[in-house]
Design goal:
The protein has 6 helices and no strands. The chain is mainly α.
């Protein structure tokens, strides 16, 4: 084999190695970003479950002061079940919105019971719930940031080629459905 033939083989080998390592690097970057999305989804889910776990105690305290609010208590209970049974980000965000709506109705009831607002158990639960709401907000933001990074990565060249070859699809943002603008009608 002459020098020219050997040089061509070496150049082709280098090109194949560069393509191979580019493919491996791109695939690994996609995998890391995908894992981050899943991890952040888990964080959102954990915080929503934490909030759902605090609700029964809050409901018990409210029930001790109010007996005629069964409808709202049922809505809260149903919304908690929806969070536990959610299997994807869309279901989780809808369940979260339903729980937010039910809790808004509960807050209206609380305003009508001054003794309840001064109960130490109630105050402690409200503080825990407020802290959890902050954690949920941070977890949602972190999840959406991870989704943004992942979606951007699978659209860029050359990772878009690798993403297409390996069946990687765009991740879904955690979006809260538009809240109802009607104020809940509470009657006593």
């Amino acid at each position: 084999m002459n020098k020219k033939g050997l040089s061509i083989i070496i150049i082709i080998g280098i090109i194949i190695a560069v393509i191979f390592f580019s493919f491996v690097g791109s695939y690994n970057s996609i995998t890391v970003a995908e894992e981050k999305v899943e991890s952040e989804y888990s964080n959102v889910s954990v915080q929503l479950e934490r909030r759902a776990d605090l609700i029964p105690n809050l409901v018990k305290v409210v029930k001790g002061y109010t007996n005629q609010e069964e409808k709202i208590i049922k809505e809260i209970t149903d919304a908690r079940k929806e969070i536990s049974n959610a299997s994807n980000i869309k279901e989780l965000s809808e369940a979260s919105e339903n729980l937010d709506s039910a809790l808004s109705s509960l807050n209206i009831i609380i305003e009508n019971y001054p003794d309840l607002k001064s109960s130490q158990n109630f105050i402690n639960l409200q503080d825990e719930l407020a802290g959890t709401e902050n954690r949920i907000s941070v977890a949602r933001r972190d999840y959406n940031q991870a989704v943004k990074e992942y979606n951007t990565l699978i659209k860029k060249i050359p990772t878009n080629i690798i993403a297409g070859m390996t069946g990687k699809e765009k991740a879904t943002y955690f979006e809260i459905p538009k809240a109802k603008t009607d104020v809940p009608d509470i009657e006593f």
